[in-house]
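Reopening this ticket.

The earlier resolution said the output was attached, but the attachment link was broken on my side. Pasting everything inline this time so it's all in one place.
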Amino acid sequence: MFYKYLPRYFSLLLIAALLQSSLSSIFLASAYAQKIKGFDPDSSNPTPKSSLGGGVRGLFDPPVGEPDPTVSIGGGRRSSDGKCPKDRNVQTTDDKASEALDQQLTPLLPSNKFGLTYSANPKFYVYVPKTSAVALVFTLENRDGDGIEAKRIILTNTPSIVGIQFDKPLEIGQDYKWIVSVDCVDPDPENTFSEGIVRRVKPNLALIGKLEKASEIERVNLYAKTGIWYEALTNLAKLRLAQPNAPDIKALWINLLKSSSFESLANNPINK
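Inline output:
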């Protein structure tokens, strides 16, 4: 009696096997198609590696654990937009235009105007708006307010970003104030200027080891993410000068300046 149903039994098994095979093929084809589109249901990390929208966070991370500066900015002198009297007297139909960032003498610094460096002779950068001034005067002061060095740079084209290095080496652990003012054709009774603070710190040995093995772009990221502002800015400015049309370097430059809300100044030329 049992042998009578064997053909039917094997037929049912064969149909079940064929049905299972078809369903498996359909599932695998669907999964493969989804994976091509960028979604892998079996991935251990389903979060997209990048996304659009929501803004881009600035590249620079402020240093952690650093004490407040021992010097302050202001010092009783009058600080304003850094304009010469001739430029200040130019009338504008838009009051907000006179307050725009691209019309002010602006040191490129973190938002608190305080930055760290490993270098004994860091480079200081300042954005110079279109101006009738003939030169910039940079002054370096110690924490007691004593001027220890001054340099004058002739302006050839503005608006632009100008860099300067002092010859006097900075001491580790010391805070310094650097001041930039415009040298106008007509004397300016306002004595307008802008300023910032620099502190030289002892290099982090672990970071130095990483920097030695890193590419130029990786160095910029390492400096920025560990709060070493002056090196991050200087290294990136060098790359920007060497490769002005490189989209990745331009994006990085905009992103670093965005850390201080200076991204609107990013397209200005950098003077060597």
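Reporter confirms the inline version is readable. The radius of gyration is 30 Å. The first helix runs from residue 6 to 36.
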